[in-house]
């Protein structure tokens, strides 16, 4: 149980990196911003030892479609697992992805309680029908992925595009540099009906109250992540985790719910600041 619990915590942190705000279709430019999410325990299932959870996610995002997008992320989470034991995790990451989804640079550093940090550092480049990944850490290694695999910002761009087309299901293989830098996930995205800008919100937050966001459409989205390398058993494969959230057409996310099978965490948007948009150089493609 202890090992699966540590894996769940690591997955929780990385999941939010993968689903940080990302670029969308050109009709609505991506919005550079800073967002703060407050984490809390929604419920537990089965024999989960978790009594309570709290934490924060701070996300900074900047860039544009021509120069690429940069994200800076930090998540600190504290879980009370009973008998006076508390698990504290600290995850920091920086990532850059070009506007065409061809290049992805990433650095991830995580700590659990008093353990040593576990840095991951690498670059992935798309070349024709394959992706070449070069890792510096945790160990120097070069390997290739299938060219149909997408990076995190491209994943969100495709979700928004599918939502605009009225599609309700999207399947993608995603690489974000998580785990040991070699993990690929198969994802199944379910997209709900669009939420009209003038629809009343049960739990308002800084995004729904922002004048710049009030006129934008958003969609309820659930993305389930499956182990790409796991052998399929009889019946349905159980996702490693799933994330539900409302996705605005400019890439901002609100009302996060992270489901890790044995426990569920909510991420409420408590602070939302829009950054000044700087004029970028003209696209060369």
Structure overview:
With 285 residues, this protein is mainly beta. It has one domain (2-274). It has two helices and 14 strands; from the N terminus they run H-E-E-E-E-E-E-E-E-H-E-E-E-E-E-E. The chain has helices at residues 2-18, 152-164; strands spanning 33-44, 52-64, 68-80, 86-97, 103-112, 120-127, 130-137, 141-146, 169-174, 185-191, 218-227, 241-248, 253-259, 263-274. The protein has a 14-stranded antiparallel sheet, covered by helices on one side. Strand 4 (86-97) and strand 5 form a beta hairpin. The chain is globular. The N and C termini lie far apart (51 Å). The model is unreliable at 1-26 (pLDDT under 50).
Structure in a nutshell:
This protein has helices at residues 2-18, 152-164; strands at 33-44, 52-64, 68-80, 86-97, 103-112, 120-127, 130-137, 141-146, 169-174, 185-191, 218-227, 241-248, 253-259, 263-274. It is mainly beta and 285 residues long.
């Amino acid at each position: 149980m202890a090992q699966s619990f540590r894996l769940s915590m690591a997955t929780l942190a990385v999941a939010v990196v993968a689903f940080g705000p990302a670029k969308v279709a050109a009709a609505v430019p991506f919005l550079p911003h800073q967002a703060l999410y407050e984490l809390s325990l929604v419920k537990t299932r089965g024999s989960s030892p978790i009594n309570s959870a709290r934490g924060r996610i701070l996300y900074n995002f900047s860039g544009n479609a021509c120069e690429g997008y940069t994200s800076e992320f930090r998540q600190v989470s504290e879980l009370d697992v009973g008998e006076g034991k508390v698990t504290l995790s600290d995850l920091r990451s920086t990532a850059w992805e070009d506007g065409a989804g061809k290049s992805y640079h990433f650095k991830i550093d995580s700590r659990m309680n008093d353990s040593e940090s576990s840095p991951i550092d690498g670059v992935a480049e798309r070349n024709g029908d394959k992706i070449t990944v070069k890792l510096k850490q945790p160990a120097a290694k070069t390997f290739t992925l299938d060219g149909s695999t997408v990076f995190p910002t491209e994943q969100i761009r495709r979700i928004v595009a599918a939502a605009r087309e009225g599609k309700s299901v999207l399947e993608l293989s995603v690489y974000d540099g998580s785990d040991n830098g070699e993990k690929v996930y198969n994802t199944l995205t379910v997209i709900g009906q669009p939420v009209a800008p003038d629809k009343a919100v049960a739990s308002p937050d800084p995004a729904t109250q922002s004048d710049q966001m009030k006129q934008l459409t958003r969609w309820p989205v659930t993305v389930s992540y499956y182990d790409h390398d796991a052998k399929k058993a009889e019946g349905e494969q159980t996702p490693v985790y799933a994330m539900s959230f409302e996705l605005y057409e400019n890439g901002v996310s609100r009302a996060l719910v992270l489901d890790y099978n044995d426990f569920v965490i909510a991420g409420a948007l408590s602070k939302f600041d829009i950054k000044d948009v700087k004029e970028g150089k003209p696209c060369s493609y």
